[in-house]
From TrEMBL, chain A:
Name of a matching Pfam family: YIEGIA_cap
Taxonomic source organism: Alkaliphilus hydrothermalis
Protein name: Uncharacterized protein
Origin superkingdom: Bacteria
TrEMBL record, chain B:
Record protein name field: YIEGIA protein
Transmembrane regions listed in the UniProt entry: 6-25, 37-59, 115-131, 138-156
Superkingdom of the organism of origin: Bacteria
Keywords: Membrane, Transmembrane, Transmembrane helix
Residues annotated as signal peptide: none
InterPro entries linked to this entry: YIEGIA
Length: 64, 308
């Protein structure tokens, strides 16, 4: 068996500049939708996480 | 002793044949590599040997020798453990895991096949010994033994055969749609896919199936998580999954429609071919651990309604 922390939000990627992280989860601000897409891809590839869309300009990257 | 020699050899051959036949029955449970092949063959020979010596031991009034069979049972439990451990160990190396229920099923199948070898050789021994009791010629004794063995093999092989998802449910193609970021198949939400690129790949290359259970019991069987994992694993292993470890977006997930018990699954394969996907899903074995007899229980509100 492989053990590890799962179902954890690793990062938040957003174009909403008003968003403030209230926890340990880092928030990455993107300039536009294209940048947001790219940032999310890069973070997910690095962390093996999965990108989920919360709509209204916010993505979360979750480790499953 | 010379006489028992023929008995033992006949029984041994029949038992080993039984094990060999089971190795070929289904390629999915066939040990793929020469090492496992040799390992299981040897265990089959040992099982057949234990069954073969039981009758001569009884004939010689060596009743204690029957404890050999208890030893055999212990030995085969170890086979199950060995198979379970080895599959558990390689589970982390699978892109789409088998799931513990499927592993348990395979391990049990290996154990059962050794019992088959033992019982086939035991039956052959009994057949031969009956021939000997009636003082028939040696060739005829062997023949009676073989007939006994073959009957046992045919009977047990049929019993062990089990059935497939295609037998209990209708499998039909479905369409992948996106409701915002939500991947849906036949109206059931499967997962949230954020990346636009992944969504595009799903829409272009993705395939989806809807599994509609034929009856109430099939609905319960298909709801089992282990059974669903088996379907996912089967589809991805046989069609080739388009996924790597850093792409969790393309993990096939079979979700249940809570309203009617239908199962839906979306998958991106290397070569999208709807027909093959349907075939593979239909040919997924129904796991023993997923089988339920929901309509046979004492509390029968639903059973009464369907008139059972």
């Amino acid at each position: 068996m492989e053990f590890g922390i799962t179902d954890l939000i690793i990062a938040v990627v957003t174009t909403n500049k008003d968003m403030v992280s209230s926890s340990m989860t880092p928030v990455f601000y993107a300039e536009d939708d294209e940048h947001k897409e790219r940032l999310a891809l890069l973070i997910s590839k690095t962390t093996m996480g999965m990108v989920h869309d919360l709509e209204s300009g916010t993505y979360i990257i979750v480790k499953h | 002793m010379n006489d028992y020699f023929v008995l033992i050899v006949t029984a041994l051959v029949m038992g080993t044949t039984a094990r060999m036949l089971m190795m070929r029955v289904d390629y999915r449970q066939y040990p793929t590599y020469p090492q496992s092949y040799l390992g299981h063959f040897t265990l089959g020979v040992i099982a057949a040997g234990l069954g073969a010596v039981a009758i001569p031991a009884i004939a010689e009034k060596e009743y204690v020798a029957i404890t050999f069979l208890a030893l055999a049972a212990q030995q085969f439990r170890d086979v199950r453990n060995m198979e379970r451990q080895s599959l558990d160990n390689i589970e982390v190396t699978e892109l789409v895991p088998r799931g513990t229920a499927y592993i348990e099923d395979i391990a049990k199948a290996f154990e059962a096949r050794n019992y088959l070898a033992l019982l086939a050789s035991l039956a052959t021994g009994i057949g031969y010994f009956i021939g000997e009791t009636f003082k028939v010629p040696i060739i005829l004794r062997i023949l009676i033994g073989v007939v006994f063995g073959v009957i046992t093999i045919v009977f047990l092989t049929n019993m062990l055969k089990g059935y497939f998802v295609g037998d209990i449910a209708e499998v039909r193609p479905a369409e992948i749609k996106f409701d915002g970021p939500l991947l849906t198949v036949a109206g059931v939400v499967i997962m949230n896919i954020g990346l636009k690129e992944s969504q595009k790949i799903y829409l272009e290359q993705g395939l989806a199936v809807e599994i509609v259970p034929n009856h109430e019991e099939a609905m319960v069987i298909l709801s089992n998580i282990g059974q669903r994992q088996a379907i996912q694993h089967h589809s991805s292993i046989q069609l080739g999954i388009r996924k790597d470890v850093d792409e969790p977006d393309f993990t096939p997930i079979a979700r249940r429609n809570p309203k009617n018990g239908n199962i839906v699954m979306a998958i991106v394969t290397m070569e999208p071919n709807e027909k093959y996907l349907l075939d593979v899903v239909k040919r997924t074995p129904v796991l023993e651990s997923a089988k339920r007899k929901a309509l046979d229980v004492a509390i029968t509100t639903k059973a009464e309604r369907v008139g059972k």
